[in-house]
Design a protein that fits this description.
The chain is of the alpha/beta class and 271 residues long. It is built from eleven helices and twelve strands. 35% of the residues lie in helices and 24% in strands. It has a seven-stranded parallel beta sheet, with helices on both faces. A hairpin with a 2-residue loop joins strand 10 and strand 11. The two termini are 37 Å apart.
């Protein structure tokens, strides 16, 4: 019998955590190896399946990351920046693949992933979907082909429970546009406009965030010049696509050399 890959899920009580659990349990090449939640959560000590309202799974929810990862080959993490940094250390200690879908991480927090990535595989992306990563690649290529006469604006829409803005995906697209132009996003980013802001600065990359209802995720990259506009768009209608991308990354990372990777690496799209 072929051995399947064990997956630990962090933040299992959340919307994304529950979806990841269901996707892992339905996947022919994966099995659930651990479930982690924050200290003090009601699910700690409970059987995960029972906590989710179903049959017993044989997996107890724990707040001990090391124990939760002890039998896993990969951990999938859509939590918070602070929690993710702790999980990165635990995953490196265990020598397992760490797939990070956490958004809202600062440049300093991302920099702190370098040390654990020297010991284990880290796959981090602001968005795990195939379509969005293709959009990232296209954004970089179009930005490289057009000069600063084309203003770049990234418009993103999400549900009304999302806590960070711009979204991780929007920032990923902004980084791609900046890379295409050979500049640092931090030098040209323009977001949070309100009041009398003055005219737009030539070469800036703008961000606009919309929050409402149950929008899963919509992203437009607009290149606007005098007399014409080019708009690249991706619409996500099913959150499961992010979970499936994360599972693909967890399998791809098996046997890879330690280091930091992204979904373009997973999809074989990096130059």
């Amino acid at each position: 019998m072929t051995q399947t890959t064990g997956i630990t899920i962090t933040g299992v009580s959340g919307r994304m955590g529950r979806m990841l659990v269901r996707e892992v349990m339905a996947h022919a090449d994966l099995h659930l190896a651990g479930a982690v939640e924050r200290a003090g959560h009601d699910w700690i000590g409970q059987d995960l399946g029972v906590a989710m309202g179903g049959a017993a799974s044989g997996i107890a929810v724990t707040d001990d990351a090391a124990a939760g990862m002890a039998k896993a080959q990969a951990v999938i993490d859509f939590t918070t920046p602070e929690a993710t940094l702790g999980f990165a250390g635990a995953a490196a200690e265990a020598g397992i693949v760490h797939v990070i879908g956490t958004t809202g991480m600062s440049a300093d927090e991302i920099g702190r992933l370098k040390a654990p990535a020297e010991r284990a595989v880290i796959v981090r992306a602001g968005n795990m979907s195939l379509g969005v990563n293709l959009l990232t690649l296209l954004t970089r290529k179009v930005a490289a082909a057009l000069d600063a006469d084309f203003d770049i604006e990234i418009i993103e829409s999400h549900h009304n429970k999302k806590v960070d803005a711009p979204s991780g995906t929007a920032l990923m697209l902004g980084e791609a546009a900046a890379a295409g132009r050979g500049v640092a996003l931090s030098d040209v980013s323009d977001s949070g406009r309100d009041g009398i802001t003055g005219a737009r600065k030539r070469g800036d990359i703008g961000f606009s965030a919309i929050r409402g209802g149950d929008i899963v995720g919509e992203h437009d990259v607009m290149f606007a010049a005098a007399g014409e506009r080019i708009i690249l768009r991706h619409i996500a209608s099913d959150r499961a696509l992010f979970a499936r991308g994360a599972l693909k990354a967890a399998l791809w990372g098996q046997g890879r050399a330690p280091g930091e990777y992204d979904m373009l690496d997973v999809l074989g799209l990096n130059d």
